[in-house]
Amino acid sequence: QVRLVESGGGSVQAGGSLRLSCAASGYTGSDYCMGWFRQAPGKEREGVAALDNNGPTTYANSVKGRFIISKDDANNTGYLQMNSLKPEDSAVYYCAAAPGWSCAWREEYEFPYWGRGTQVTVSS
Fold first, then answer.
1. pLDDT tens digit string along 20-55?
2. pLDDT at position 46, please?
3. Residue 41 contacts by C-beta under 8 Å, 6 or more apart in sequence?
4. How many CB atoms lie within 10 A of CB 22?
């Protein structure tokens, strides 16, 4: 049974940094790829970042140059390093996984496995 558990969320002032983690179980890390999504109150869930297991990554325009997605297959854990945070980054952040090596160009519906989310709040 695949399970994803996010951690690392919290409250931070604008300009600060947070690193989100996504601990995965129930599969071998190298057999799955991963993405991060977020949902702010009153808004639809949106893609933030995703990566292929061989390196290529995609980022939402709003986070390019500030967020970095990575994955440690040895520890079955994914990460989202978030720098220069802005109040508009406040949301519940979700990690998602899919079988295969390529997630960079997948749509949200193509991710079958999801965590329960972690809250990120950025104050001005």
1. 999 999 888 788 999 999 999 999 999 999 999 888
2. 97
3. none
4. 25
Residue 67, CA distances (Å) to 26, 28, 92, 103 in order:
27, 25, 15, 17
Burial class (CB in 10 A: 0-12, 13-18, 19+), 118: buried
Q: What six digits make up the tokens of 49?
A: 């970042």
Tens-place pLDDT, residues 70-80 = 999 999 999 99
User: pLDDT > 70: what percent of the chain?
Assistant: 100
- Are 2 and 27 in contact by the 8 Å Cβ rule? The answer is yes
CA-based torsion, 68, 96, 103, 108: positive or negative: negative
CA dist., res. 102 & res. 50, Å (int) = 9
DSSP code for 27: S
- Strand, helix or coil for residue 75: helix
Residue 81, classed as helix, strand or coil, is: strand
Residue in the block written with tokens 């390196």 = 55
